[in-house]
Design brief:
6 strands; two-stranded antiparallel sheet; 18 helices; single chain; four-stranded antiparallel sheet
Length: about 525
């Protein structure tokens, strides 16, 4: 099967971000003073569990970033291959049954019939209202009334066993690697993991991997013959829509944050460090920008961009390229309008840091402003940047849902959590109510945002210099107290047991002959 690779604007930026992350990891590995704080991040069980979940989401997002256009069966008049206008991804290929098994309309999770009744004409001319069989969901069952639940139970058990098998292989591979590096046998490494005596909490990672492996195994066994999370109004699988929405959430959260950071870092640190009229100008800028309702500003700019796209259709080969440009422009607008809160935090922290003794000493020794900012100010505010970045990531994922709900978010042809929620608002008013689309979007968003926040909390505890100093001082004071108590006890014991010595006034010097 031939295909034509397609690189969208957001794809290129994601590849650039991945390259920057890899380069940063390579640079950190060569510097011990940078490796030590991140090594402390690996000591948090909750942080490592959250990171494991995040890596699963990131893997799905990266698979959905590798786009291509498949070749059609026929060729043009010159004999050249004609490629489809539909842009697919590697994730679409991996979950082809979810993408292609489209029903007529709504169906409940793991159902074998449609959710609403239809009218059927009987041979005698009468009409009967009944639930129609699904075309794909449960189509392999001859008698759904008696075979439905046993078939689901058997597939769940098979997926559970498959997930445990994959997890056991990963567990064994980890133990073999640890045994090879440490020069110990397999059993010792196995015991050290579950006795929680390893530096990295592998037990927490393995427990999280066990849950993920079992879920993936069950979903893989069920999704080939059922719609696990049901279908929407046009019959698309809701599980497929949820998986496709992960990439949009990651793009909105990461690219918008990268656009926001330069503004917040440069203006916040500059205002707090130099003060004076520079501080007044920067405060005026972000106060004015904060006073404008962000939703109205975003709506105005997105609608202007949409008008430009509609009036220049010749610039885009496919619908996906048009939707991707709108997504990129939405990230830019969100980044420009969301840097004010972080800038205010950095300004306040810089105002406090510039009065510290080591900063004043650097000024006294004639150190340049750039060196003071880069060597003393910036490292001490990075924990604020990190926490604010992850919190903004969570807020931006939710903001995309709200903006798409009101119609000024991503393109309607693009699958995202916002478009799913927007489509589900009318479904909630149906009788009977269609609840699974909203539930699926909520569950995936909650898992993504919660794992990001838990990992950010672990990183904040490891990188915050104030937390480390407080912990170190508490430990040092306890050690000092123990030493003082030991010295006092030893002195008291020596005083009570030793014989009394004469004072120096009682000693008279003797004349040597």
């Amino acid at each position: 099967m031939s295909f034509k690779p397609v690189i969208l604007w957001t794809d290129a930026l994601i590849f650039l971000l991945v390259a920057i992350v890899i380069a940063f990891i390579w640079y950190v590995r060569d510097n011990e003073h940078l490796t030590a704080p991140w090594r402390r991040v690996g000591h948090s069980a909750s942080g490592m569990s959250a990171l494991t979940v995040l890596l699963v989401f990131i893997t799905i997002g990266l698979l959905d970033t590798l786009h291509f256009r498949p070749a059609l069966e026929h060729k043009n008049m010159q004999g050249k291959t004609v490629f489809s206008v539909e842009v697919l991804s590697v994730l679409d290929v991996l979950v082809t049954p979810l993408r292609t098994n489209v029903e007529k309309t709504y169906s409940a999770p793991l159902a074998t019939h449609l959710y609403a009744k239809e009218t059927f004409d009987m041979p005698d001319g009468s009409q009967v209202r009944a639930f129609s069989r699904l075309e794909f969901g449960g189509a392999h069952l001859q008698n759904p009334e008696t075979e439905h639940l046993p078939d689901i139970g058997w597939r769940v058990a098979l997926g559970f066993a498959l997930g445990l098998l994959v997890w056991s292989m990963l567990h064994a591979a980890l133990c073999f690697i640890m045994a090879h590096r440490a020069g110990r046998n397999f059993a010792r490494c196995f015991q050290s993991i579950w006795r929680r005596s390893t530096e990295i909490p592998w037990y927490a990672i393995l427990i999280t991997l066990a849950v993920i492996s079992v879920l993936i195994g069950i979903l893989s066994m069920l999704s080939t013959h059922y719609h696990v999370l049901g279908t929407d109004k046009v019959g698309q699988d809701v599980l497929y829509l949820s998986l496709k929405s992960i990439r949009i959430a990651l793009v909105i959260g990461t690219l918008t944050t990268l656009i926001m950071l330069p503004f917040a870092l440069l203006l916040g640190i500059t205002a707090g460090y130099f003060r004076g009229w520079i501080d007044d100008v920067i405060q005026y800028i972000y106060t004015t920008l904060s006073s404008i309702p962000s939703v109205l500003l975003i709506a105005a700019t997105v609608l202007m961009m949409q008008v430009y796209i509609e009036t220049h259709p010749e610039l885009f080969e496919t619908i996906a390229a048009r939707a991707d440009l709108r997504l990129l422009f939405l990230c830019v607008i969100l980044g420009i309008t969301s840097w004010t809160s972080l800038c205010r935090l950095l300004r306040g922290e810089t105002l406090k840091l510039r009065e510290m003794e080591y900063i004043q000493a650097a000024h006294a020794f004639g150190v340049s402003h750039w060196r003071i900012i880069s060597r003393h100010i910036l490292p001490n505010v990075m924990y604020i940047v990190l926490i604010a970045t992850v919190m903004d990531f969570s807020g931006l994922v939710l903001a995309e849902a709200v903006l798409s709900y009101v119609g000024v978010g991503v393109d309607p042809s693009m699958i995202s959590f916002g478009t799913m929620i927007n489509a589900a608002r009318m479904e909630m008013a149906r009788e009977p109510m269609v609840w699974w689309s909203l539930m699926a979007a909520f569950a995936f968003m909650l898992t993504l945002v919660l794992s990001a926040n838990l990992f950010a909390d672990a990183v904040q505890k490891a990188l915050d210099p104030r937390v480390r100093t407080l912990t170190q001082n508490s430990g040092d004071s306890n050690v000092d107290n123990n030493k003082n108590l030991t010295v006092t006890t030893a002195h008291a014991a020596a005083t009570s047991s030793a014989p009394s010595l004469p004072s120096t006034s009682d000693i008279k010097p003797t004349r040597q002959p």
